[in-house]
Amino acid sequence: MVKFCPTCNRSSEEVGFIGEFCEVCTSERIGRTIPDRVSIKRCKNCGNIKTDMGYEPLGKDPIERAIKHELHAKDFRLKMLEYDETKGTADILFKTDIDGNKLSFTKKLHVKMEMGYCPKCYRMKAGYYEAVVQLRGRSADVENFVTKLLKFIDSRNGFASKIDDMPDGCDIYVSDKAAVSAFFDSRENLKPKKSYELYGMRRGKKLYRHKFFIDLRDPRGLWSKKKH
């Protein structure tokens, strides 16, 4: 028996039906429940965008994940077909199941980039640090040490908020005290002197900054004693 859509009068001989309505009208009806615009948070310092995985470099897959994250469309499977950065638009393919029937349709979304700071860049801008590495020694040893420390810290998603030059070395202010501890733990020949400084409270818990002092001129701390 031929069915006719009560909305557009299309017949079941022309298009598929979902319940009493044709799939075209069903797609249009459901499509109207999805926002026409979506805002994505983007860091104005590093350029990364916020997705369900945190902040990621701008790219097709991260933009797709960011749109999914912001739409909160749990009943749909989304795939970005095209993104026009100049126009700020994205063509999205939506797929879903309704009463056992598969339905898919495309919709053009207007994408707005909301500029701000990601947590890491915000902390960098504010000069945040949890640890200070007080490094002393010959210039070449100090430079070698700093390079390796910063590379290790960066691999842990940390950063140095500032480096103060000293007459015989430097003080490095690092965002993550756990990363600094891990750095020294991975190098048995480097045994820094440790101290702690109370700097605040959070939820009734005392917060401490860690200080690590190491003199590379000390035979027990010379970088050249062991290759890493």
- Approximately what portion of the residues adopt beta-strand conformation? 35-45%
Oligomer: single chain
Q: Helical residue percent?
A: 10-25%
Count of DSSP strands: 13
Total helical segments = 5
User: Reading side by side through the largest sheet, how are the strands ordered?
Assistant: 10-11-9-13-12
Instruction: Compute the number of structural domains.
Output: 2
- The arrangement of helices and strands along the chain is EEHEEEHEEEHEHEEHEE
Largest sheet, in brief, is: 5 strands, mixed
Q: What does the overall shape look like?
A: rod-shaped
Uncertain stretches of 5 or more adjacent residues: 221-228
Report the radius of gyration as a whole number of Å. Answer: 28 Å
What's the overall average pLDDT, rounded?
88
Distance between the termini: 78 Å
Structural class: alpha+beta
Key structural traits:
single chain; 228 residues; alpha+beta; 2 domains; five-stranded mixed β-sheet; four-stranded mixed β-sheet; 5 helices; 13 strands; 40% strand; disordered C terminus
Ordered list of secondary-structure elements with their pairings:
Layout (H helix, E strand, L loop, with lengths): L16 E2 L2 E2 H9 L5 E7 L5 E3 L2 E3 L3 H12 L5 E8 L4 E10 L2 E16 L2 H8 L4 E6 L2 H17 L4 E7 L2 E6 L2 H9 L7 E10 L2 E11 L13
Parallel strand pairs: 3-8, 9-13
Antiparallel strand pairs: 1-2, 4-5, 6-7, 7-8, 9-11, 10-11, 12-13
